[in-house]
Amino acid sequence: MSSFSTDPPEPDVFEVSVFGPGKGESIVVHLGARRWIVVDSCRDQRSGEVAALQYLCGMGVNPATEVLAVVATHAHDDHFDGIADIVEACPTAVIVTSHALMNREFLALVEAERDIGGITNTASYREYRRIFEIAQKRKDSVTGVRPLCRASENKILLNLPALETIPAVTVTALSPSEHAITRALEGLAKNQLHVMGERTRRSMFDPNEASVALWVSAGKVNTLLGADLLSGPAGCGWGAVLHSFSPSEPATLYKAAHHGSSTSHHEGIWTKLLANEPVVLLAPFRRGNVNLPKESDIEYILARTDKAWTTSPRKPTPHGAFKKQAAKLGTLARNPRDPYGIVGHVRARIPLTGGIWQIDGFAPAAPLTVRT
Description:
Helices cover 25% and strands 27% of the residues.
């Protein structure tokens, strides 16, 4: 069972909590005055619990009234499992998705009223479809407006005024860029032509190129939430962000993009967007033989800060023979100290007036280190 904190932050404290790996990763942010946002979703593979909801409810937070936005950063299953559950539990929240339509999202959008389950059975399709159905039910009866927001570069998603002793807050999307949106639409068109029998080279567009990175500014605190945004290609990713966005003050906390992978490394992030020795939080990725971050990625991060944490120490994914034998043994094969499938939790808190980040890790979370 995952071990999460149950003590809520004070009204004048800013918080970033990262959960993972389980299936996916998720971020929960306290903006002050019991106002929250949730970014992506993560499900504990053993308990089946959605980490963000488990955490919020465990602290006595009411998602129905206190969560202001739910952000789905991009169309990859490892960030999506359970996000429709979060949307359903947060009826007053704005629902944010990337402005760059993906093929599975497009199918869910145009066919939300019909039963087309046989076309695709991917988790992201099912989650998208549920999200759109929920948004349809929540549309304004007079205007017909639905609580949906499309994120794109430099678009303000939330702009909250100051409340007595609580400073104003802005949540800004840094991506996707205009070029990334164009590439996604071109890829969508090519995929549809392929389905209709036209001879065309199918798009190799990576949904990570259109991932929604966020800049959260509250009082004297700036944070950068990197989603799975890649360093490029040209006109996309971090290259595009650095071309279009210049903060007045750097961020002191960075949720590392793409699980800390080298595909998201860009020196401009560290020189233009981040303060010296920032806090870095990440959730690793494990699937088959793919384990992120790699040792070289960890070395890259630790060369730039000594304040890096992971939600779970990186260990190789068990090979197929091991998993088959473990499945036969069932619960007898489970070691309570084995982190596989368990969601770890790293929590960072800081006063909205500024100061030093307080970092707490809840098992199996730990400081990021190079494995020896």
